[in-house]
Amino acid sequence: MPDIAPCPECNSDYPYPSGALMICPECAYEWNPDEVEETGLIVKDANGNRLQDGDSVTVIKNLPVKGAPKPIKSGTKVKNIRLTDGDHNISCKIDGFGSMSLKSEFVKKA
Fold it and tell me: For residue 73, how far is the Cα from the chain centroid?
């Protein structure tokens, strides 16, 4: 019997095939194993484009920074981003500001 991936809903180790679908006996979830998206951190920009580590993004709105005399201007290009968990899901370095965390809803992929 081939290795069967656990249930994407409840992580049960007992799903079974039923035609083209897989069924979990513990939570009754049904899914097509060919359509399961890879697990992991998925971050999208303001336009819905998927971001990855190392991408470059452009800020789409002036962003005030606590303790700084001026905001991050709209149109500022940020290179080599890193994706993180949490509310501010982009970690980066911005020239003139240093290390910074940004929300993905305020950037677009460059």
Answer: 24
